[in-house]
Amino acid sequence: MCLCYNHERFVTEALFSVINQTYAAIELIVVDDASSDNSVAVIHAFLKEHPQVQFLVNEINLGNCRSFNRALLLASGTYIIDLAADDVLLDTRIEKQVSLFETLDTRYGVIFSNAAYINERSIVVSHHYQTDTQGKSRKSIPSGDVYQQVLQQYFICTPTMMMRKSVLEALGGYDESLSYEDFDFWVRSSRKYKYAYQDEILTFKRKVKGSLSTKFYQLRQNKLLESTLIVCQKAYKLNRTEGERQALATNIRYHLRQSYYTKNYPLVSGYAALLKELSYIDFITQVILWLSTHKISVWSLYKLYLRIFLKFRP
């Protein structure tokens, strides 16, 4: 599934990266989520040469989760890739991931790999995991039962994933009440299924100004932080061990701070309430909660930090 929203500059490259795969048995479903640019016309031009591609056009913007689920209803393949229309698959990506999946038993629901980050001119600027001279990751990447690691740290590069369709169907697809999909999918799927890491670069992930990830730093009414709180509440119910509770607490503290820095004060209270449920509320959290209750802001300092961080972030 290739999801497009205002990607007229990049969507053709993304679509050709699917068409040019060394693996032949591919079904491509494209969804345009009510783009305001020329994306639909660009995709129609591509379809003239590739009429086998299915194309859905949303009349109104539905968001990633609902758009993906529309495409999932049409999919007939065994495995699924969720491809953003500004990212690029390397030619052997699908062949290699299918080959690995065919060696794994059904306990494994997801494969993911390393990725190279490209800029808007398709030039490689960095890697998701730093590599050695042989192109292998310099550090150990979680694999197998990754549920606890998913709670504690961000380590999976979303566009590198290949998922069993049966897993998505068992989960009911993406949660359409959320503003983004990956954290919720990781939590719900890794509780039931194993993940396999493939140690090679198979995808180019594009860094674009104003992308969804930058909206985590949005001042007030931050829907992404709101969705993250909902996922953390789900994880609280799914947790089984003390280690998982500690991992979730680490995640909650981070997003509580983000909520405070960006003046999303009601979310600070929500995250703090969940920490209390976990019995992991600490002194710093209590201070932040007090500052948030009295709406004492550090937004100006945080905004300066973001300017520096986002400027130099790979």
Overview of this structure, please?
The strands form two sheets. Strands 4, 6, 7, 8, 9 and 10 form a six-stranded mixed sheet that branches. The protein has a four-stranded parallel sheet with strand order 3-2-1-5, sandwiched between helices. Helix 8 (223-238) packs parallel to helix 10, helix 9 (242-261) packs antiparallel against helix 10 (265-278) and helix 10 (265-278) runs antiparallel to helix 11. The chain is an alpha/beta fold and 314 residues long. Strand 1 (2-4), helix 1 (11-19) and strand 2 (29-32) form a beta-alpha-beta unit. It has helices at 11-19, 39-49, 63-72, 93-101, 147-152, 165-171, 182-190, 223-238, 242-261, 265-278, 283-293, 299-312; strands at residues 2-4, 29-32, 54-57, 79-80, 83-84, 88-89, 108-118, 124-127, 162-164, 194-206. It is globular and about 60 Å long. The chain has twelve helices and ten strands. It folds into two domains: 2-208, Alpha-Beta Complex (Spore Coat Polysaccharide Biosynthesis Protein SpsA, Chain A), CATH 3.90.550.10; 213-312, no CATH class. The longest helix is centred in the last third of the chain and has 20 residues, at 242-261. The protein starts with a strand and ends with a helix.
> How far from one another are the termini?
26 Å
Spans of 5+ residues with little confidence (pLDDT < 50)? none
| Coarse structural class | alpha/beta
Beta content comes to 15-25%
Q: What string, H for helix and E for strand, traces the elements in order?
A: EHEHEHEEEHEEHEHHEHHHHH
Total strand segments: 10
